[in-house]
Design goal:
Elements (H helix, E strand, L loop, with lengths): L5 H4 L12 H12 L6 E5 L6 H13 L13 H7 L6 E5 L6 H11 L9 E6 L6 H12 L5 E7 L7 H4 L3 E4 L5 H14 L3 E2 L1 H10 L4 H14 L3 E2 L1 H8 L4 H12 L3 H13 L4 H20 L11 H10 L2 H16 L7 H14 L6 H11 L2 H11 L3 H9 L8 H16 L1 H10 L10
Parallel strand pairs: 1-4, 1-5, 2-3, 3-4, 6-7
Helix pairs in contact: 3-4, 5-6, 8-9, 9-10, 9-11, 12-13, 13-17, 14-15, 14-16, 16-17, 16-20
The structure holds adenosine-5'-triphosphate, magnesium ion and zinc ion (ZN).
């Protein structure tokens, strides 16, 4: 028997087995149950999130021999033919290759004839945004007053390119990218059914690499099964994905936290010797910081299957949230500037050294803490600003092009200006007679 790729073998055949997209399924189910049928649908969403799949399920729901239903039987001749994409009344057309007004006119000419076997004739126009404006215009009249036997389903990865005149005649559904945890759960089911051994953490790596696309997840899984000889270990999947060894990232972040420049350079050399992609390393570092930040606000957001779970929790409790934000920003900016660097190694190490440069001076922290605890909210703000309690904050502002709050002279000038304003008779009258308030810090 020939091997059928997982994505095709496991294409969901009914609404219930679709992963995610609950909002779309719910709306379509209601409409089908109440027989409130629209004649044109638009499914938008990125690659491999289920647009074509959903179009086929909807077509079965409309045409199943058991009647219009949210749960098509999947057994009747019509259902079977639609699943196999060989029903004469279900026409999938790729707008990327037939995009001209002639193609559209030919399609519309055929559309007036009644369906051969099914209840409705369904045209599924994939990558609809590729149609020319003339083709869209040719379509408009039919979309406005379609013959009762005709349904249109448009699918697109780029809904912004569809004219509003067309959009407004379609019922629009936006399919979402799937979160890694949801993809991982679906993959585990499929792998178990396929009798493939796997470590949950390895599956999680695959799910993350899929970037929200179920098709990509299944293609990667196909590749992994071949690569790892049906035994998906973390080791093997990491190798296959060419993922940056996570230990490097954790050690780098440790070195940053410890303010250990020598260790950072040592690690940079080690990574260069192993030809690690520095762009990928910065991206993964940002991703690690993103997880740390999340874990600070929602500790449950780190799943048990997370490869770096322990380290993420460790950093989350050790680092002030502002520092995490700052490092994240430096990592992403550093990555975007990699092309400007003399070479990738220089760009990478400079980015990490920048994290050191902006690092809060540890000594200032303990000294300041007791003061903060005792002080009132107002004076706390002041202490923060004047004493520069948070160099991380200042560095973030500096990176964003905001005036450095460390600039004590400016702060002082600001306070003087505010004081002068408060003493101004006109201002005092405004405050007294109209209930005006002076907002501290708003005086430029
Ligand atoms: N929501 C989903 N639930 C389960 N599997 C899915 C889902 N979305 C996609 N898949 C899997 O990915 C494969 C491709 O999906 P589909 O053809 O529906 O994607 P698409 O959104 O049309 O992508 P494209 O924009 O590339 O055409 C399916 O055969 C199925 O195995
Ligand atoms: Mg498709
Ligand atoms: Zn059926």
């Amino acid at each position: 028997m020939t091997y059928q790729v997982l994505a095709r073998k496991w294409r969901p055949k009914d609404f219930a087995s679709l992963v995610g997209q609950e909002h779309v399924v719910k709306a379509l189910t209601h409409a089908l149950e109440q027989q409130r049928l629209h004649h044109a649908y638009l499914f938008s969403g990125t690659r491999g999130v289920g647009k074509t799949t959903l179009a086929r399920i909807l077509t079965k729901a409309l045409n199943c021999e058991t009647g219009i239903t949210a749960t098509p039987c999947g057994q009747c001749k019509i259902c079977v033919e639609i699943d196999a994409a060989r029903s004469v009344d279900y026409i999938e057309m790729d707008a990327a290759s037939s995009r001209s007004v002639d193609d559209m006119s030919a399609l519309l000419e055929r559309a007036i004839y009644a369906p051969v076997a099914a209840r409705f004739k369904v045209y599924m126009i994939d990558e609809a945004h590729m149609l020319t404006n003339h083709a869209f215009n040719a379509m408009l009249k039919t979309l406005e007053e379609p013959p009762p036997h005709l349904k249109f389903i448009l699918a697109t990865t780029d809904p912004k390119k569809i004219p509003v005149t067309v959009l407004s005649r379609c019922l629009q559904f936006n399919l979402k990218q799937m979160p890694a945890a949801q993809i991982a759960a679906a993959l585990e089911k499929i792998l178990s059914a396929e009798n493939v051994r796997f470590e949950p953490r390895a599956v999680h790596l695959l799910a993350r690499a899929a970037n929200g696309s179920m098709r990509d997840a299944l293609s990667l899984t196909d590749q992994a099964i071949a690569y790892a000889a049906r035994d998906l270990s973390v080791e093997a999947i990491r190798d296959m994905l060419g993922a940056v060894e996570q230990r490097y990232l954790v050690r780098l972040l440790d070195a940053v936290v410890e303010h250990n420049g020598a260790a950072i350079l040592g690690l940079g050399d080690e990574m260069a010797a192993h030809s690690v992609s520095f762009a990928q390393a910065l991206q993964d570092l940002a991703s690690l910081l993103h997880q740390i930040a999340w874990s600070q606000y929602a500790p449950d957001s780190v799943p048990d299957t997370e490869v770096n779970g322990e380290d993420i929790r460790r950093f989350a409790s050790a680092l002030p949230p502002e520092d995490v934000q700052l490092y994240y920003q430096i990592a992403t900016i550093g990555r975007s500037e990699l092309g400007l660097a003399p070479d990738e190694y220089a760009g990478f190490t400079m980015t990490l050294l920048r994290m050191l440069a902006f690092q809060p001076v540890q000594a200032s922290r303990p000294a300041l803490l007791p003061a903060l605890k005792q002080s009132s909210p107002a004076s706390r703000t002041e202490a923060n600003t004047v004493a520069g309690a948070s160099p991380a904050r200042a560095a973030l502002d500096a990176l964003n092009g905001v005036r450095s709050v460390d600039d004590q002279a400016a702060v002082k000038r600001q306070q003087e200006a505010e004081r002068a304003l408060k003493q101004d008779a006109f201002v005092q009258a405004l405050v007294r007679d109209f209930g005006a308030t002076l907002i501290p810090g708003s005086v430029q």
